Amino acid sequence: MVIYSLTPRRKANPKKYVSLSRRRAQWIPAQPIRLGAGEKLRIALVVSAPNNLAPVDYATLEKNLEGLVTNFPEKVELLPISQGNPEAINEVLEEKPHILHFVGHGRAKNDEDEEVEELALTDPDLGDAIWVGADFISELLNTHKPALVMLQACDSGTLSSKQPFFGVASRIVQQNIPVVVAMQYEVTNATANRFSRKFYEEILKGKPVDIAAQFGRRQISLGATLFNRRDFAT
């Protein structure tokens, strides 16, 4: 079951504290992040930039994540950037990151206009795109399940009018991963970076993920969009 929740967090100013999230019941409750004494939150950045697709700009995101390490040195650790091929992703998962942040391309329809749930990984030898389905991505995450997966890829959170539980994000949640943050439609890198920077800041301040996501949406709305576009809700 997919549930849309719109829950005021405080009565004094409900508009500011409304959280919008899609929830799904699990047979086995997923476990939240539990850090040991002195343990830092580990973030793994995976960048898939195939030669035959549009460039993937991740420089600003990398700078923002490095800024988090500077501002929260006792709380967060950024693992070395992983290239977006299956072997590299498997290797970085062996480091047991708490958060996996994927940057790349996604699609909900293929060249034949058929509904698909795919991300573009990178061929390690040729450098071209390998379009893989959500089942393949979910299988990669079987060796280690991050507590949070961020999909900075177009259509990664898209739903289908024909198929229940459709989409990469939904498939990953089925692997009993507590939280997946994904994009329903295409947004600019600037919008995605603005959201993720604020989202991670609030997480490190101890905010729940749904509230952190709401702060991230608000940060988008404070930019050039000013609610004139759908980016803040995407």
Task: Characterise this structure.
- This protein is of the alpha/beta class.
- Helices cover 27% and strands 24% of the residues.
- It is built from six helices and eleven strands.
- The strands form three sheets. Strands 3, 4, 5, 6, 10 and 11 form a six-stranded parallel beta sheet that branches. A three-stranded antiparallel beta sheet has the order 7-8-9. It has a two-stranded antiparallel ribbon with strand order 1-2.
- Strand 10, helix 4 and strand 11 (179-181) form a beta-alpha-beta unit.
- Helix 1 (59-71) packs parallel to helix 5 and helix 5 (189-204) packs across helix 6.
- Residues 1-15 and 156-166 have low confidence and may be disordered.
Characteristics of this structure?
3-stranded antiparallel beta sheet, 234 residues, alpha/beta, 6-stranded parallel beta sheet, disordered N terminus
In short:
With 234 residues, the protein is α/β, with parallel strands linked by helices. Helix content is 27%, strand content 24%.
